[in-house]
Design a protein that fits this description.
Blueprint (H helix, E strand, L loop, with lengths): L11 H11 L7 H19 L24 H24 L9 H24 L1 H4 L4 H22 L2 H20 L4 H24 L9 H15 L3 H14 L7 E3 L2 E3 L4 H31 L12 H34 L3 H58 L5 H33 L2 H5 L1 H28 L3 H28 L7 H4 L11 H25 L13 H9 L14 H12 L2 H8 L8 H26 L17
Helix pairs in contact: 2-3, 3-4, 4-6, 6-7, 6-10, 7-8, 7-9, 8-11, 8-13, 11-12, 12-13, 13-14, 14-16, 16-17, 16-19, 17-19
Length: 669
């Protein structure tokens, strides 16, 4: 027997929820859950000494659980899982009613098994109200027992078609569960009460509809009105129990898991999501604090020097890795719950799973979006850190080389350029791979339904994709230039400029279409804005880098193809020299250096072809009218001169002697 000072820990809602989700009801497998309840009851009876004696000669002896023999919560669990066994069997029979081969007596057996579950739950209430157990049980556990019995009683009335009785029992259960949720000592207890309320609400709504009540405003007002009249009868001493619940709620430290994202509140009504939601909230709070610290440091330092990047240290890297781990686990849990909910809807299509579908999907999307955002932020910090380290090493190499050359004046300064080129050749491929990962994350973010439905967010993501593509093409262009593939390098540079213009245009259209504040609640959730600000300064800096790369790569290509740049270049311009050659009347050309194909493409195209003659031949331009008259005499003169020259040549050449016939043997002179 339990003493009055002993405390019985009997969280009924948690026990039922864990057992149902673990042993089959996640996929609506009532047969498996029924088998588990049978094994559970047998184990509990054996552990407390209420099992039957083994042997065929032994007679069956009824061994009920009585209040004066209850020594632990296992005695109460025997009654609870006996009721769950009967309830699971009734639901298994209910599923078989859709089969045409089911016997007609199945429904009668269903009602009988459900009635047995109600009887056992009533016994559990009697045990909780007994003088021996009323003190050891807390107010929360006692209220959970009452709510469980009322739900079972309402389910039986619902199956029998007695909607007035069902409305009364389910309304009282709804109010008791609501009180449990509002006074819960922890977020998990609140979620468990909300889960049971979601199970009660569809049956309560149907009973109210059958009785002609207006359900447009929801079932809460109806349940409250019915409970005020019938609460004293169904739950004796409810006022005292309600006061005890309020006192216990004040003593507990309840953690709030309310999530507000983009102006919408995401309810966490699933007990399995509570722990994950709390971890996600703490991880995001840590990252927000890190972001605020970085902003304060930037403001304290003033404007950063050009080329200085934010360095990702080991401690900061660990912060982002922990956040990614927490979000990854939460995403896996939410994904599994969404999939299980889809399977349950496909099997039963109950209103409970329909109601819980949107909150689960919304929470899953929320976690996925922030997981991608933090992954992108971490990759951008990696790029910034790598770029900063690369610039520092290049500066060190140049400084050492300049110092050595100034001291000895014997070493070629181009050695430093070779070291820097080898250093860049190692760094650029890794940076391009990181940009590929960033693009994959941004494209996955763009394909989310919540992003597609929000025009502002979709435009922002598109602008970021174009900006990152521009940066990726810029580093690819530099890599091709290091490999002396200058045409590909310049082509990638042009493509990067195109992406930069596209991103700038998208941001300008976004700014004109939406009045978005610079700082606010939405920006707190945007972890990418610090690394991809998409402002005029960022676009101008990118344009300057691309233009500088274009000039540098063009000069390198010019030098690689035989030209000279800078102090060694010829004083005379190539185009001026070509124009001078065209102006020579006597056709003599001065000796000049070979043209470089890169700079002479347009000039050679103009001078190599007679564009006027080509246009006349193509029919684009009409031929001049006096062209035949002027050209015919010249042609005739040329012909006469040619004939005279041929005649003179014939006269000068000696005529060969005539030879006889017969191989010249006869008639020879």
């Amino acid at each position: 027997m339990a003493s009055s000072d002993a405390h019985l820990n009997f969280p009924l809602l948690k026990l039922v929820s864990d057992a149902r989700l673990t042993y089959g009801l996640r996929h609506q497998d009532f047969g498996r859950y029924r088998s588990h309840c049978v094994a559970k009851v047998h184990y509990l009876r054996k552990s407390v000494g209420l099992a039957q004696t083994a042997g065929k000669s032994r007679k069956y002896q009824r061994k009920d659980v009585v209040a004066d023999k209850v020594a632990s919560d296992k005695h109460l669990q025997i009654v609870l899982f006996n009721a769950e066994r009967c309830w699971a069997y009734s639901q298994q029979l209910k599923e078989s009613l859709d089969d045409p081969a089911t016997p007609p007596t199945t429904r009668h057996l269903l009602i009988k098994r459900l009635g047995k579950a109600v009887s056992l739950s009533k016994d559990l209430v009697a045990l909780a109200q007994s003088p021996e157990l009323s003190s050891p049980l807390s107010a929360s556990h006692a209220a959970q027992i009452h709510a469980y019995h009322l739900v079972m009683d309402g389910s039986l009335a619902f199956e029998r078609g007695k909607h007035d009785v069902g409305l009364k029992s389910l309304s009282i259960a709804f109010e008791v569960l609501g009180k449990l949720a509002s006074t819960a000592a922890s977020a998990t207890d609140e979620a468990l009460a909300n889960e049971m309320m979601d199970e009660v609400e569809p049956m309560l709504r149907f009973c109210a509809y059958k009785l002609g009540k207006d359900t447009a405003a929801g079932v809460a007002p109806i349940a409250k009105g019915v409970a005020e009249q019938e609460m004293a009868t169904a739950v004796p001493e409810w006022d005292e129990l309600s006061q005890r619940l309020a006192e216990e709620g004040k003593q507990g430290e309840k953690e709030s898991v309310e999530i507000t994202w983009r102006g919408e509140t995401i309810p966490v009504r699933n007990a399995e999501l509570v722990a994950a939601a709390v971890k996600v909230r703490d991880a995001l709070a840590t990252l927000k604090q890190d972001q605020a610290t970085a902003r304060k440091a930037e403001v304290a330092q003033g404007k950063q020097k050009e080329g200085k990047k934010e360095i990702l240290g080991t401690k900061r890297m660990g912060t982002y890795d922990k956040a990614l781990l927490v979000l990854g686990e939460a995403e896996a849990i939410a994904s599994q719950l969404v999939e299980d909910n889809k399977i349950a809807r496909s099997k039963g299509n109950t209103a409970r799973f329909e109601a819980s579908s949107r909150p689960l999907t919304l929470f899953h999307t929320y976690v996925q979006y922030h997981l991608l955002s933090i992954r992108i932020k971490r990759d951008l910090l990696v790029v910034s850190s790598a770029s900063s380290k690369l610039a520092a090493r290049e500066a060190k190499i140049r400084h050492v080389e300049q110092t050595y050359v100034a001291r000895t004046e014997t070493r070629n300064p181009a050695v430093a350029d070779g070291k820097i080129r080898r250093l860049r050749a190692k760094a650029y491929p890794g940076l391009v791979k990181v940009f590929d990962t960033i693009l994959l994350s941004l494209e996955a973010m763009r394909d989310k339904e919540v992003v597609e439905q929000d025009d502002e967010l979709a435009s922002t993501v598109e602008a970021r994709i174009a900006f990152v593509r521009a940066q990726r093409c810029m580093y690819l262009s530099r890599g091709y230039a290091l490999a002396s593939s200058f045409p590909s390098s310049l082509s990638l540079n042009a493509r990067a400029k195109l992406y930069a213009r596209q991103s700038r245009s998208t941001v300008q259209s976004l700014s004109s279409a939406f009045d978005t504040p610079d700082d606010g609640g939405e920006r707190d959730h945007d972890f990418i804005a610090d690394q991809l600000p998409l402002d005029d300064a960022s676009f101008d800096a990118l344009d300057r880098e691309l233009e500088a790369d274009y000039d540098r790569i063009s000069k390198e290509w010019f030098e690689a193809t035989g030209g000279k740049v800078g102090e060694n270049a010829d004083e005379e311009d190539d185009v001026a020299a070509g124009v001078r050659d065209l102006s020579l009347a006597d056709g003599k050309k001065e000796k000049k250096k070979a043209k470089v194909p890169f700079y002479d493409v347009a000039f050679n195209y103009v001078t190599a072809f007679d564009l006027d003659a080509m246009a006349i031949k193509a029919g684009l331009v009409a031929a001049p009218a006096d062209a035949p008259a002027t050209t015919a005499p010249a042609h005739a003169q040329v012909t006469e001169e040619a004939k005279a020259a041929v005649g003179t040549k014939e006269e000068e050449e000696p005529q060969p002697a005539k030879r006889g016939w017969g191989f010249g043997l006869f008639g020879r002179r």
